[in-house]
Write a structure and sequence with these properties.
252 residues; alpha/beta; Rossmann fold; 2 domains; six-stranded mixed β-sheet; four-stranded antiparallel β-sheet; 9 helices; 10 strands
C-alpha cells in the first residue's frame, strides 16, 4: 500500500480578511513529484507556506508524515525539521560562508555535532556541484549558484518532503537552466516533492502529477501529458496557451 506523505483537506487561508486559498484538497504519495502551476496571485506560494505554517491557515486539515500540522499541540519545529523549503530568493545568510549556511540549521534544528554537520554539508554540496565553493560567501556567487546552495541546505535536512517555491523565477535563462539541471538530478533521488513553477518543460520531465490553481481553487489536476496537451477546463487551456506562446512553441 502506497504511503501518503502529505494530506491536505479543505484548506482555506488568506491575509487581512482576504481569502487566498479556498477549500484546497490533495494528497501526495511517498516519492511522488507534484508540480503546481497557475497565474501570479493564485495562491500557489501561500499553499506551500501553509504546509509548514509559515502562513497560518484559516481552516482545514494538513497531515504530514502522520502528524496533524494544525493541531495546537503539535511542535511545528519538528514538522519543519521533516521538510526542506527552497524559496525564490535563496534566503542565505550573506555574512556566513556557503558551508556554514548549511551547517547552522543542522546544528540548531537537527542537533548534529559540529563534525557530523560539516560532513553532511560537504555531502550535499557535492550533490549539487557546489563543494568547491564551500568557503565562498553568497555574494561571491551567481544567482544560480546561490540557489543550488539553497537546494543543498534543504537536502541536508534529509527531508521526507521537499517544497520548492518558484526556484528559478529570479534567474536569467542561463542560470535558470543550471538550477533546473540540479533539480532534475534531485528528483531522481526518490524524495517527495511539491514544486511551484512556470517551467513547463521541467514539469513535463519530472512531474508525476500537475495541479493547476486559479483564484485560490484547484481548477484541474492530472498527469503532465494530459493536463498540458489535452486540458479539460477552458481556464486551464487559456493559461497554458499564454505560457506556450511565451515559450514560442506548441498550440492548444
Amino acid at each position: 500500500m502506497t504511503r501518503k506523505v502529505l494530506i491536505v483537506e479543505n484548506l482555506s487561508a488568506g491575509y487581512d480578511g482576504h481569502e487566498v486559498l479556498k477549500n484546497i484538497s490533495f494528497n501526495l504519495n511517498e516519492g511522488e513529484k507534484l508540480i503546481i502551476i497557475g497565474p501570479s496571485g493564485s495562491g500557489k506560494s501561500t499553499l506551500l507556506k501553509c504546509i509548514v505554517r509559515l502562513v497560518e491557515p484559516w481552516k482545514g486539515r494538513i497531515i504530514l508524515d502522520g502528524i496533524d500540522v494544525l493541531d495546537p499541540k503539535t511542535n511545528i519545529r519538528k514538522v519543519r525539521a521533516k521538510t526542506g523549503f527552497v524559496f525564490q530568493s535563496y534566503n542565505l545568510f550573506p555574512h556566513m560562508k556557503v558551508i556554514d549556511n548549511i551547517v547552522l540549521p543542522l546544528r540548531v534544528v537537527k542537533k548534529l555535532s559540529k563534525q557530523d554537520a560539516y560532513n553532511k554539508a560537504i555531502e550535499v554540496l557535492k550533490i549539487v556541484g557546489m563543494y568547491k565553493f564551500s568557503n565562498k560567501y553568497p555574494l561571491q556567487l551567481s544567482g544560480g549558484q546561490q540557489q543550488r546552495v539553497a537546494i543543498a541546505r534543504a537536502l541536508a535536512m534529509d527531508p521526507i518532503l521537499l517544497l520548492l517555491d518558484e526556484p528559478t523565477s529570479a534567474l536569467d535563462p542561463e542560470l535558470r537552466e543550471e538550477v533546473l539541471l540540479t533539480l532534475r538530478d534531485v528528483a531522481k533521488r526518490g524524495i517527495s516533492m511539491v514544486i511551484v513553477t512556470h517551467e513547463l518543460d521541467f514539469a513535463e520531465d519530472v512531474a508525476d502529477r500537475v495541479i493547476f490553481i486559479d483564484e485560490g481553487v484547484i481548477v484541474e489536476e492530472g498527469n503532465p501529458w494530459d493536463l498540458f496537451y489535452n486540458p479539460r477546463n477552458v481556464r486551464t487551456r487559456s493559461f497554458l496557451r499564454t505560457i506556450f506562446r511565451r515559450m514560442g512553441e506548441r498550440n492548444l
